[in-house]
Design brief:
The structure is a single chain. The chain is an all-alpha fold. It has nine helices and no strands. The radius of gyration is 20 Å and the shape is elongated.
């Protein structure tokens, strides 16, 4: 049971990482990688090279984690497994949307989430409750205002640095978080 959880977690980890397009024979995997990926041994040669590389990368990340991080990942996996199917699908869809953001937009989303997580539990609950009480139209208006304010702040900060492309400075629409809340 624990190995199935580990394998699933490794699969989830690798979904979020870029990969190259090369196939890797099972025999070239380390014994540790083979143990983590043993579930895939029988059909390894039929997997697409990209899938193989994602799994290899995930196994490397898993093996490099300290025991506390592994335990935290297992707990998140257990929590994910206990969610209703509809919520799991919604969460996977949101992860896919996040992966499609530019690196700068991802950085901004992580920063907002960090600010939200730094709020007291009471402040977070208050924000969630206020957002949930809005009608769909009011939510859209609030999200629009936040995007406009963000664009104004970016405009006041001056032109983008040479390392950031204009498209990476555009903000993605804020998405409500699981449970109705979202990062401020």
């Amino acid at each position: 049971m624990l190995m199935n959880r580990i394998r699933f977690i490794v699969t989830l980890i690798v979904v979020l990482w870029p990969v190259s397009l090369w196939a890797q024979p099972w025999s070239e995997l380390t014994p540790e990688q083979q143990q983590v990926l043993s579930r895939y041994q029988s059909n390894w040669s039929t997997l697409k090279p990209q899938q193989q590389q994602q799994l290899v990368t995930g196994s490397q990340r898993w093996l490099a984690m300290d025991p506390q991080k592994r335990e935290a990942m297992l707990q998140r996996y257990q929590k994910f497994q206990q969610l209703p199917e509809a919520e799991r699908k919604q969460l996977m869809q949101r992860m896919q949307q996040f992966r499609q953001l530019s690196p700068e937009q991802q950085r901004q989303m992580r920063a907002r989430l960090q600010r939200f997580n730094n709020l007291s539990p009471e402040q977070r609950q208050k924000l969630r409750k206020r957002f949930q009480q809005l009608s769909p139209e009011q939510r859209q208006q609030a999200l629009k205002r936040m995007r406009e304010q963000r664009q104004q702040r970016q405009y006041r900060q001056g032109p983008p640095s040479q390392s950031a492309s204009p498209s990476s400075r555009q903000s993605a629409p804020a998405q409500p978080r699981q449970g109705g809340g979202r990062a401020p």
